[in-house]
Amino acid sequence: MIGPTATGKTDVSFYLARMLNAEIISCDSMQVYKEINILSAKPPEKYLREVPHHLVDIVSVEENYDVYKFYEEAQRKIKEIIDRGKKVICVGGSGLYFSVLLEGIFTFSYKDEGLRDELKRLAYQKGGYYLHSELQKVDPLSAEKIHPHDLKRIIRALEVLRLSGRPLSSLKSQRKGIWSEYKVRVFGLTASRPLVYEKINKRVEDMFAKGVVEEVRSILGRNLSRTFRQIIGYSQIKD
Fold this sequence. Notes:
The protein is mainly α. The chain folds into 2 domains: about 10-105 and about 175-239, 3-Layer(aba) Sandwich (Rossmann fold), CATH 3.40.50.300; about 115-170, Histone, subunit A, CATH 1.10.20.
């Protein structure tokens, strides 16, 4: 189940899970952290008690948690739930997490910070369109899907090609997600933009009323992980 923030995914998934005797997999990069409840908009305690929710409250704010770990743990949990004869409802959350769950992810990683810096320098000297044109020459399928202004993804595609010797589009075609393993249906919730904005504004007001500033303040002295420090709202409240 997917949809923009504040369209009701948490409520709908809870009532569906009760009706279908299902368990819920959270595809949310913030709800994994144990110490943060208000900022991450976790499901109410009633929901967590009545329906099993997986990948919620599983790591400390001092631990890095990325999409690779999520993919492995979500795959394992889905198999466990199905083997017990129950249905699974995956709720996102984070678009990237939901995407890799459906389509798969690389089981290996090609990274070279020096190469990334070199490509960034080229982009600074010759412009982002230059790198995009270079990508078009060597991996036209990836270039077609990446906007010329999306410098981060352009650099990533060139980095993978140089380090692996294979186009990113070719490697992506070998990914294996739950599309190929199970019968999957994707439901998207939506609402008018004014209503979504109104609900988001109300949610933010509720967060402050419930003590989100104190929640963030309570962890400031800790050795916070790189991935935690990237979550939406943390840096703004900290500042």
